[in-house]
Please model this.
Amino acid sequence: MMKFKTFFAFVAPSVFMMVLFIALPLVSVFIQSFQITQPVMQQMEVETCTPGFITQTCVTEVKTIPTIGEDGKVITTTEWVGFESYRNVLQMDKVWDAVASGNVKDILQIDFWKALRFTLMFTLLTLPLVIGVGLLIALTVNNAAKAVRGPVIFISLLPFIITPVIGSLSIYWLFVGDGILTAMMERWTGTNISMFAQAWTIELLMYFYRVWHVAPFAFVIFYAGLQTVNMDTLESAVIDGASRWERLRHVIIPHLMPLIVFIALIHLMDCYRVFEEIIGFRSQAHVISLQWLTFDFLTPDDAGNRAIARASASAMLTMIGIVFLLILPLRRTWRDHKGSAH
Amino acid sequence: MSTSRAMRQSFALRFSSSAFLIFWVVIASFPILWITVMSFKSPVDAFADNPLDVIMGPNTLSRGDGLSVIDIVLGLAVIFFTLRWMFTRLPGWIDSYSPAGLKVLGWVVGAAVYAIAFLVVFFGILPLILEPLNSILGPLGEPFLGLTTQHYVAVWGENEFYRNFGNSMLVTAGVVTISLTVGTLAGYGLARSGSDLAFWLLILALIFRALPHSVLVAGYLPWFINSAEILRPIFGDVSPTLYGQPWAVIAVLVAINQPFTIWMLRSFFQNIPAELDEAARVDGCSHFQAFRRVIMPVMWPGVITTGLFSFLLGYNDFLVTSLLLDAQNQTMVPAIAGYFNRETTTTDQVEAVAAAVSITAPLFLLVMVFQRQIVSGLTAGAVKG
Model:
């Protein structure tokens, strides 16, 4: 066992990095979400002159312009505004209006709720697909001749390793406009298809992309797990007359259960921050996610301003989801830890 | 499995199993393969309705860019031997030429020399040989497959994509070296300490791993933009504006990557028996000496694997680099978003495709060389739980 001082010396650089660039920014975001920083505006009489026919025509008007400080920069003030940024993001008044008028669907017109709906649905729908497809690939590869396994693993790793933005772009290009696959579907159905004109087709492609991208990860882990299935158990199951399906259900899947939990946890964490698909499919007009919403607030608008306060509020709201996401696995880990320590 | 009689499978099952596998292999490779083909065609061919037109490229051919049978055979032969010798001969050459103790440097130099030699042979010498060959051989020398490299020339030449490539390399190299240095120490400490504190640190790291990166960037931005003024009382006039600085992005990506790195390295260190460093300690080494003399020589497989994943994080990142770097020192992946904005003509679109393929090519090589390490890295975390 290590002494505390030695342990501390080993982990200190890493802890320092995490505190400085993860923990402190979190605190900062929390504080920023209750503040608004704005340029100090002042009213000024401005005379604008335009050349006229005989004399100049001059107009004097009162304009509101940002105050420039001595160093040539815009002077800003920071005010505490309580929950205003949260209200701006959540737009609860519109939500209640929608509920009161009975048009509950109108809630999904508001950016935050639209993003929340997509993020949750995306996370929950792709989870079983990734695990199912990953397991299917693992079983078939395990069934294949030894010589083809290496090449199949090589090809399977490509969608996993590819840059997410590029991966979604590569699928986007197959379908955009009269892309090769859209043209094919049009030939089959005889109708005009446009995959990027409505939300649901874009979402369908996003689900496809995510499964394509993550299933290899599940596959590799399941494949490693399948190598350690106890052959004796499997053979005695055969002797007991268990069918192939029963063997899968009662021997193989229970053996892989810890791996399924692991993949589910990683997948939930990664899927909840879905973002790159929105960029790659250029879907911001139709489909957005929570992380994209924060990203959009942080991107400078045409005037070069970033909506830091609203970004912080939407970031804090996103964090609530993480708490729900992690509460179950963390309780489990804590129980295991207490169980193993005593 | 096939040895046991009880496990023997019916023909239908074997058939559907292989059919699914072929189906998956096609799905997995098709999008990447297709954009690679597209990137070598003229815009009319790249976005043609008919798949055969995209593959054969009649329009590209009619514009005078095409390959003959001889071109293809010789070109493929050069590529084949380049890849083959990369695995069979290159390691031997590097071993014999690099001075002892500088093997890592030897690999870097060797790989660079090898890549340059390939480029010289493929783009310099090969066309010189092929030109007379094509004119002698008649029908075999007649171009039939449309193929053009004009989009790559445009992307890397006119659009100066090499600048973005350089920035990407700078950021990823920084991320990999620093995260591994910091992470290896922490991973070793965590693996060898059974204290509650170590447990809580790992749990905290797990929570940090789940954070969306945009949340963190929202925390950095106001500080990074105003850092020159905030730091002035401490550093005086040399205090930098962190916004737009590649090394600030490196620090951020290292921190974001730390949770994953320490979890992974910890599980690798747990596989190294603790008796090894205990023996060294009995011989009078301190913990640091034991780490340096006994653990470091045996830890390389784990470090290489973790390094690969750090590389991927830095290389693939879009969100952090696009928000914290400005246009002058943009990395490759956010730079491709620049193509969306001016994607007005189909030529621009195919150039974007060529840029995308350029970003993917190094990753393809990476999987080729390090397939085993990537697989072991993926399973290391899972098997340990």
Q: What stands out?
A: Strands of chain A lie at 35-39, 41-50, 57-66, 76-80.
